[in-house]
Amino acid sequence: MSVTDQAFVTLATDDVYCQGALVLGQSLRNHTTSRKLAVLITPGVSSGMRSVLRSVFDEVIEVDALDSADSVRLALLQRPELGVTFTKLHCWTLTHYSKCVFMDADTLVLCNVDELFDREEFSAAPDSGWPDCFNSGVFVFRPSLKTYNLLLQFAAEHGSFDGGDQGLLNSFFSNWATADIGKHLPFIYNLSSSAVYTYVPAFNHFGRDAKVVHFLGATKPWNYKYNLQTKRVMHDGTTSGSFHQLSFLALWWNIYSASILPLLEKLQKTEQSESEERKHTFNGVEITLKKVEPSEANSLQMPVPPEQTYEMTCPPEELSFEVWLYFSNLYVKLNNAVLTSIPLSLTDLQNNLLLILHFRKPQN
């Protein structure tokens, strides 16, 4: 049953981040959330992208951009673009909702997470870099103009210790670390895609229960390239990266290519000319789309028909944990080996493991 007074909320400050928001929204749809979906956008988002957002989100709400203008602290993070993340504070103005869950546009839902609405403000998961602080990529809050105004006042008087919204929110909700353990979300609700392999045994033990993955860092999923035929994720022409990170990227790109890319192509088809081979480029995301001739069909890995597409599961009950653990450890060992002495394509191994770990046949 639909719950109309609660919503998942995200933020997209430009057309590039809209791509992440679209994948996030679609992942929530894929896992049959009963809550509304809302996206905050700034005036810089194009009209065409707004129309695409409306096909996934229930509400597309324009807000003014807020900038911390704290260049010194942002330089410490080497992330000057984080200044505009103060715009996130506008989520507290959505007072037509009684409770919301904010999720950054670079997060991906792996299963239904509606149980987050059972939590109270301010619930969030620990930050992997400093666990006494929470990560502001996923949090539960109650919209309130009073809280919004207090946050703006606090920001004006104290600023942010990291120049972004995370520093501000941690200072404002300063008792999060000690006041109520019930407001500490498990790490599986905000799992860093780039940090899981730093503690491989923990990931092998708990990773199968992951519910939300967060693509932290300057390089986002849409900065990679994806081959529609081979289903390989590449960056700088290679498939290098940790096994866990590549598997999460593959999940992101599967949703993008299956559900979001068709929407963007529909938007742009009047501007695109038909040709034997063309490149789809959208704000830094480039995908080669090749017209397949009948003679080539057998030599390509053709896309799976819609009725046969895989579904992400959380956890994947059909896959035994022993298989997960075996292949995860196998990859780590091979990745640390002298690969030149092993007559095996690591790229092929990665792709096969991704299929084993994250694909399953649909239920009859």
From TrEMBL:
Ranges in coiled-coil conformation: none
Family affiliation: Belongs to the glycosyltransferase 8 family. Glycogenin subfamily.
Classification via InterPro entries: Glyco_trans_8, GNT1/Glycosyltrans_8, Nucleotide-diphossugar_trans
Pathway info: Glycan biosynthesis; glycogen biosynthesis
Keywords: Cytoplasm, Glycogen biosynthesis, Glycoprotein, Manganese, Metal-binding, Nucleus, Phosphoprotein, Transferase
Chief site of localization: cytoplasm
Annotated localization: Cytoplasm; Nucleus
Cofactor: Mn(2+)
Protein's UniProt name: glycogenin glucosyltransferase
GO BP of this protein: glycogen biosynthetic process
Species annotation: Aythya fuligula
An annotated Gene Ontology molecular function: glycogenin glucosyltransferase activity
GO cellular component, one term: cytoplasm
Matching Pfam families: Glyco_transf_8
Listed EC numbers: 2.4.1.186
Reactions that this protein is recorded to catalyse: L-tyrosyl-[glycogenin] + UDP-alpha-D-glucose = alpha-D-glucosyl-L-tyrosyl-[glycogenin] + UDP + H(+); [1,4-alpha-D-glucosyl](n)-L-tyrosyl-[glycogenin] + UDP-alpha-D-glucose = [1,4-alpha-D-glucosyl](n+1)-L-tyrosyl-[glycogenin] + UDP + H(+)
SUPFAM superfamilies noted in UniProt: Nucleotide-diphospho-sugar transferases
Top-tier EC class: transferase
Purpose of the protein: Glycogenin participates in the glycogen biosynthetic process along with glycogen synthase and glycogen branching enzyme. It catalyzes the formation of a short alpha (1,4)-glucosyl chain covalently attached via a glucose 1-O-tyrosyl linkage to internal tyrosine residues and these chains act as primers for the elongation reaction catalyzed by glycogen synthase.
